[in-house]
UniProtKB/TrEMBL annotation:
Organism: Pseudolactococcus piscium MKFS47
Pfam families recorded: NUDIX
Cofactor(s), by name: Mg(2+)
GO annotation, biological process: nucleoside phosphate metabolic process; ribose phosphate metabolic process
Name of the protein this chain belongs to: ADP-ribose pyrophosphatase
CDD domains membership: NUDIX_ADPRase_Nudt5_UGPPase_Nudt14
């Protein structure tokens, strides 16, 4: 089957919301090979970066923070959205986020993957990196004014236990830890 056999063509698009982080649209689409139409609620996001930051002691740096959409505090790897103009250089955005959230810089950076966070309704692409050979930055960039985070360092065994207990349930963090485990046991 070709792309055209799956493509839903947009008939109309209505702007529902334009925000600082997301835009929401409401599309009417024609279904492939059919005369019927369907409705699609879509979220457009500029994308983001995340970092599997591993210390020299082979510990993963996690941030613990409150997430309003969940109404709870969760553990995640350092991450953030791509600011305007950063789409062409997500690695630079990752370097910025690592410094802002952990006060660290990395001598070794490797891109692991990029993936869609929720392709059923959102176009967000997350760029995932691994950072090692970390050093403290003397005068790090400040955290975002609207963030309150706490840093934690855990071993791979501890991270896996946190997944099992449900303390880590964030998709980007699960993917990063899975990569770390696969790489460690390869």
């Amino acid at each position: 089957m070709n792309f055209e056999d799956f493509e839903e063509k947009t008939v109309t698009r209505e702007d529902i919301f334009k925000g600082q982080v997301i835009d929401v649209k409401y599309d009417t689409v024609t279904l492939p090979g059919k005369t019927e139409t369907a409705k699609r609620e879509l979220v457009f996001h500029n994308g983001g970066v995340a970092v599997l930051a591993i210390t020299d002691e082979q510990k993963l740096i996690l941030v613990r923070q409150f997430r309003k959409a969940l109404e709870k505090v969760i553990y995640e790897i350092p991450a953030g959205k791509l600011e305007q103009g950063e789409n062409s250089d997500p690695q630079a955005a990752m370097v910025r986020e690592l410094e802002e959230e952990t006060g660290m810089a990395a001598a070794t950076i490797v891109k692991i993957s990029e993936f869609y966070t929720a392709p059923g309704f959102c176009n967000e692409v997350l760029h995932l990196y691994k950072a090692q050979n970390l050093t403290k930055v003397d005068n790090p960039r400040p955290q975002d004014a609207d963030e309150t985070i706490e840093l934690h360092e855990v071993t791979l065994v501890e991270a896996k236990a946190m997944i099992k207990s449900g303390e880590i349930a964030d998709a980007k963090t699960l993917i990063a830890i899975q990569y770390w485990e696969l790489e460690t046991h390869a």
